[in-house]
Specification:
heterodimer, A: mainly alpha, Arc Repressor Mutant, subunit A, 2 domains, 63% helix, B: alpha+beta, 7 helices, globular
């Protein structure tokens, strides 16, 4: 469930408005925290998403000011992805939850993807970002995102138990 | 990817994020305490994976797209940080003008907007890259990335470790004016965080936000190792590794290779070498001669310890960059219109490659951590194939067996797999 003050409806498109007028970190973070926690949940699941975001916040506090960054949104998304990789390491083999219907196999297949591939799939296929926009948030080249998506699809097709005829 | 598949992914993510917790507040001190406690509880694995396992380019990158961006035909992924600066190059390399008629200069061309990549199916797939293995395949299609500059290396020299030439422990590849805008391979990281970074001989960097013990590092290295390659992690500095100018060449030592950039007899060159220390490489480069017009580089006199396997004029050409993909349950195939220079792919990570043959051409087998294996060879002149196993740990023999069944498919072949459901423009495929 989204925290207070956030929409409970999924907002598929992370904010792309870079015109943050307030220099306060809290304001900048508040602008993106709903998307960030959904992003973290997509990457590591609901149990660890809060930890991931908390750790990112520690780094923000250490750094001093988000407002000094050219692109705080991209910084935060990259930080969430980087931090999520630590959790992924822990849950890769043993943290397999029973997924709810109707898509348990797809969800499991998504959870088995390498972190960056899952991030690319989330940003492009779910959040409706272009490859270029996803690349900006992930801190890599558009061609790299394309390769992540390509490889993710190979893995998903291999893992899905849903037959192609049923699609 | 079909729209139904995309919708399935959307629906799955919808369910996953529906359970998103409340986002912590930035100004709450408890967030700091909670997070630190969590980090301690996680132990070293948190640190190990934390951060920034950064993949750098492995394999040669013969395509220059747009003059600066490279597209790797190899199965390996490439990731870089956003703030990587361009390398520092000796001024006389970046300023040098090619002589009139230089064959290694690509004709002017307008690179295609990446967003305009197109699917090609059926008869639109160029005949020369349309290949299928005689095994069960699910689908085939091609992606047209537009025009690209195609330029093979000028020189490849290898030190084989056995008479059968199945393995090597050193290699040098000389490119003409290659990768002048190559991104820095190592992370600048999250600026505020102290990182403890290590590199492996594959050229990949791993950064930890807590310094690991020797045992922890060894355990992590064991996870990275494959049966062909035993990972050893050496400390590296986080951040770009600059070139150091020495005797007119820019030189930098990366964990898996040495790179040199400079000018030989008026020819600007980019040199990659693995398995050699800097003095040895400098000695060999000192023996190189070049033709600034043809781009050919030679080793003279030929060294006794390393064998020149390729030295030829470099003829650059603009090609329509189309990649044919075939996917099956056990294997995937990519076919590139690209010059194939034996042994050059292994330039930056020689030790985990093995060499074999498919038909009468040299093929390169690699085994990645996690069991991913692939085979690359030349199916026809200027046509390079990458065969990747979708099952873990496929052996070289298994891949060669499949490779040797590869055959061209006419446009109206009844066995041609069905195309994807979508048509152009595409996004995210490739």
């Amino acid at each position: 469930m989204i925290g207070s003050g956030e929409s409970t409806q999924p907002n598929r498109r992370p904010g792309r408005d870079h015109g943050v007028e307030s220099g306060l970190d809290a304001d900048i973070y508040a602008k993106y925290r709903g998307e960030l926690v959904r992003y973290a949940t997509a990457l590591v699941g609901p149990d660890d998403a809060e930890d991931v975001l908390s750790t990112v916040l520690v780094r923000v506090l250490r750094m001093g000011s988000l407002g000094s960054l050219d692109d705080p949104e991209a910084y935060l998304f990259r930080a969430v992805l980087n931090e999520s990789r630590s959790v992924r390491r822990l849950v890769r083999d043993d943290h397999v939850e029973q997924a709810p219907d109707p898509l348990p196999e797809v969800i499991e297949a998504l959870r088995r993807l390498p972190m960056r591939q899952r991030a690319a799939a989330y940003l492009v296929y779910y959040a409706d970002l272009s490859v270029a926009e996803a690349a900006e948030l992930m801190g890599c080249a558009p061609g790299t995102v394309k390769w992540y998506l390509h490889d993710a699809r190979l893995r998903l097709r291999r893992d899905w138990r849903v037959s192609r005829e049923q699609l | 990817m079909t729209m139904n598949e995309v919708q399935l992914i959307r629906d799955a993510f919808e369910l996953i994020v529906a359970d998103a917790p409340e986002a912590p507040l930035l100004d709450a001190p408890v967030a700091l305490e909670h997070s630190l406690a969590t980090s301690r509880r996680r132990g070293w694995l948190v640190a190990a994976a934390a951060a920034l396992a950064v993949l750098v380019a492995v394999g040669s990158l013969p395509f220059l797209i747009g003059g600066s961006e490279t597209a790797a035909p190899t199965p390996q992924s490439t990731a870089t940080t956003a703030a990587d600066p361009a390398p520092v190059l000796p001024a006389d390399v970046s300023d040098i003008d090619p002589p009139p008629g230089a064959s290694w200069v690509c004709p002017p061309f307008e690179p295609q907007d990446p967003e305009s990549d197109q699917f090609l199916t059926g008869a639109d797939v160029p005949d020369e890259i349309r290949y299928l293995p005689a095994t069960e395949m699910d689908r085939g299609w091609a992606v047209d990335y537009g025009p690209a500059c195609n330029r093979p290396p000028a020189l490849v020299a290898v030190n084989f470790t056995d008479e059968q030439r199945t393995a090597a422990d050193a290699v040098i590849v000389v490119w003409v004016e290659f990768q002048t805008a190559e991104p820095s391979p190592y992370p600048s990281g999250i600026a505020d965080t102290e990182l403890f970074c290590y590199g492996d001989s594959r050229g990949r960097g791993y950064c930890f936000d807590v310094e690991p013990s020797e045992n922890e590092l060894a355990e992590f290295a064991a996870q990275l190792s494959t049966e062909l390659w035993s990972a050893e992690l050496q400390p590296i500095e986080a951040g770009p590794i600059p070139f150091v100018e020495e005797d007119g060449f820019g030189i930098r030592q990366l964990p898996n290779r040495v790179e040199m950039v400079g000018v030989i007899d008026g020819l600007p060159v980019w040199i990659e070498a693995s398995g050699l220390d800097i003095p040895t490489l400098q000695g060999l480069v000192g023996q190189m001669t070049a033709d600034a017009v043809t781009g050919q580089v030679e080793l003279s006199p030929p060294p006794t310890t390393i064998e020149v396997v390729h030295s030829a004029p470099v003829i650059a050409e603009v090609v329509n960059h189309v990649v044919w993909n075939v996917e099956g349950p056990d294997f995937s195939v990519q076919v590139w219109r690209q010059p194939y220079i034996p042994y050059s792919t292994s330039a930056v990570w020689i030790e985990a490659f093995r060499f074999t043959t498919v038909g009468d051409t040299v093929a390169i087998y690699s085994l990645e951590g996690g069991g991913t294996s692939s085979l690359s060879w030349e199916a026809a002149p200027g046509v390079r194939v990458y065969l990747t196993a979708n099952v873990d740990g496929a052996t070289v023999d298994e891949l060669v067996t499949v490779a040797e069944t590869l055959g061209g498919v006419p446009p109206d072949h009844p066995d041609l797999p069905p195309p994807p459901n979508r048509t152009a423009p595409i996004e995210g495929d490739g």
